[in-house]
Amino acid sequence: MKNRVVAEMQTTLLKPVIKLHKIETCPTQSPVEAKRYCCEQCGKSYASVGSLKVHYRIHTGEKPYSCEECGKTFTQTGHLQHHKEMHTGEKPYCCDQCGKKFTFMSTLKQHKIIHTGEKPYSCDQCGKKFTHSASLKFHQRIHTGEKPFSCEVCGKSFTQNVHLKSHRLIHTGEKVYSCDQCGKKFTSSDYLKSHQRIHTGEKPFSCEVCGKCFAWTGSLNIHRRIHTGEKPFSCDMCGKCFMKDEKLKVHQRIHTGEKPCRCDICGKCFNQSGTLLKHLRIHTGEKPFSCEMCGKCFTESGSLKSHQRIHTGESSLSTVSRPKPFSCEICGKCFTEKRQIQNHHRIHTGEKPFSCEICGKCFTESGTLKRHRRIHTGEKPFSCEICGKCFTESGTLKTHQKMHQRIHTGEINLSTVPFSCEICGKCFTAPGSVKRHRRIHTGEKPFSCETCGKCFHLSGSLKKHRHIHTGEKPFSCEICGKCFIDKGKLKRHQSIHGGENSLSTVSHPGPSQLKRRKLKTTRTSAPSSSSESSDD
To answer: Which is nearest to 366 in space by CA: 240, 486, 477, 244?
Structure first.
C-alpha cells in the first residue's frame, strides 16, 4: 500500500515540475544515509521522495499549511505546530543560567551557547567561527557568491530567505510590525526592536575603551572613530576627511554652493538644517534657552552661556584661561577648539577653499566669504532697534548698541564720555576708538604690508592698500560698470554722472578732503606773496 502511494506521488505531483534522478547507493551506506532523490533545480539530494517534495516548495513558494489564528502559512506541518505555540504564550523551557524562557527546546539549546562561548562551527575558507550551523551556512555564501532567494518583482537576489521577505515589503509597502508605545510601523522585526530602545532607554552596546553605551551598533562604530582617529570619508575637492558620511555631504555643499534648506517665510536658503532651525527663531520669536537665575531667554545656547557669566562673576575674558588642548605643530599656538586649529592651519598652508563667485577672491573661512559678499550686494542685515542704522557685521552693531546704552538710556551724557585721550583730551564712546586714536600721537603703525613693508595705523587702511598689489577693485559703478579700489573714489566718480547723490558728495567733502585742500592752498599762496614783496 505504501509503495503504491509513493508511486502515485511520483507520477502525479512531481513529474510535471521536476525530474527525479535516482542516485546509485554505495554498498557501505545504510538505507538511512543514502540520498537517492535529487532536485533538478539546485542539485540537492534527499533519501526520500517526501523530503524532496517538501524541499521543492522552496522553489515553487508553495505553503500548504496555514495557521487558523493569524493566517500565516508554512511549508511543513512541524513548522506550523511550532508556530501555534506562540499564540498560547507558553514558554516551558527555561535557561538555568539567566532565567530567560523560550517556547522551543531547540531555541533554548542555541541560547545556552551564549553563556558557554562555544563556537563549534568554523568556516574552512577564512576560519571564522559560529555558534550555529545555520549561521555558518549563511556565511559560506559570502565566499561562494550564492544567492538562492530572488525577488519575483525586481529580480534582486539574497543569501537568506528572511532578507527576501523584508525586501518584498518594499514593493507591497506593508508595515506589519508596529510599536505598542507610539504606534509607529516598520517593515521588519529588527527595525522594530531597534526602535523600541528609544522608549526603554536600553543601550546594550558599550565602548571597550571609555565604557560609553549606545542603543545601536552603528552609533558605537562611529563613536570608536573618536578613539582611533579614523576618518574614512574624504572630500574629493579639497581632501578634508570626516568621521561621518552626513558630515561630508554637508561639507561638499561649500564647494557646490548648494543650499537645500529654505525658509518658507522669507525664502532665505541654508546649507544645513540646523542653521535653518536657528534662523526660523527670528520669525517665530522663539527663545528656547532660558537662564535659571533670572529667567531671561535666548535663541542660541552660546548666547545663554555668555549671559550666565554675569551671574557667576566669570569674566568674558576668562576664555583665555580655558584649557587649550589643540596646538599648532608649526608655530606652537594653542586653541580651545579643534575647529579653530583647522582654520589656523590654513595660514601656514595658504589654503583658501572659499571663493567669491563675483570677483573670484578666495578666503580661508566661510564666514569671511559671507561678509565679503555684502560688499557686492550692499546688504546690511544687522540693524539697530533704537535708531534704525544698519551694519554689515553683527560685531559693529554690538559696538554701536553699547553707545546707545550709555547715551540714549541716560546712563551718561556726551559731556561725560568715559573714554578720553590723556594727551589731547579728545573723548570717545568706545575703548577701541581711543586705542586707535592714540596711534596718531605715538606714531605706532602695527599693520604692515607683507608685499612692500609699508605700515599703517589701521587694519582697514592696510586692506585698502593691498588692493594696489592685488589689482582688486571691489567697488563698481552701477551706471557704467567702472571699478575702483575704495568707496571714496567711487563716490567721486559718481559725480560725473550727475544727480542728487553726486551733488551731495561734492558739496559736503569729508574731513580728509578739507585737510588736503587746506594744505594745497597754503602751498600755492606762499610763492605769490613773496613775489609781491619783491616788486614793492
So the answer is: 240
The span from the CA of 328 to the CA of 309, in Å, is: 29
Q: How far is CA 334 from the centre of its chain?
A: 26
Give the CB-side neighbour count of residue 531, counting CA atoms within 13 A: 5
Sign of the Cα pseudo-torsion (11, 17, 23, 29, in order): negative
DSSP state of 475: E
- Dig out the grid coordinates for 533 from the structure: 614783496
Strands (DSSP E) contained in 364-441 are 382-383, 390-391, 419-420, 427-428
Give the HSE-up count for residue 171: Cα atoms under 13 Å, Cβ half-sphere. Answer: 11
Alpha-helix residue ranges (DSSP H) falling in 257-337: 273-284, 301-312
Q: For the chain, give percent helix, strand, coil, nearest 5.
A: 45, 10, 40
Beta-carbon contacts of 339 under 8 Å, excluding residues fewer than 6 positions away, are none
Helices (H), 61-104: 77-88
pLDDT in tens, 346-388: 888 888 888 888 888 888 888 888 888 888 888 888 888 777 7
d(CA 198, CA 130): 30
Cα(151)–Cα(165) distance, rounded to whole angstroms? 9
- For Cα atoms 447, 391, 379, give the angle at the middle one, nearest 5 degrees: 105
Query: Does residue 234 carry a pLDDT above 80?
Result: yes
Q: What is the pTM of this model?
A: 0.35
Question: Measured between alpha carbons, how far is 217 from 203 in angstroms, rounded to an integer?
Answer: 10
What is each CA distance from 207 to 193, 213, 215, 219, 438, in whole angstroms?
A: 21, 6, 11, 10, 58
Summarised one tens digit per residue, pLDDT across range 244-278 is 888 898 888 888 888 899 999 888 888 888 888 88
Which amino acid type is present at position 34? A
DSSP state of 371: H
Scanning 126-188, the segments in alpha helix (DSSP H) are 133-144, 161-172
Residue 53: count of CB within 10 angstroms of its CB: 17
- Cβ–Cβ under 8 Å, residues 295 and 286: no
Torsion (CA) 344, 350, 353, 355 in degrees, nearest 10: 120
Give the max Cα distance, the chain. 158
Which backbone phi and psi does 46 adopt, to 5 degrees? -135, 160
Asked if 40 contacts 23 with a C-beta cutoff of 8 angstroms, the reply is no
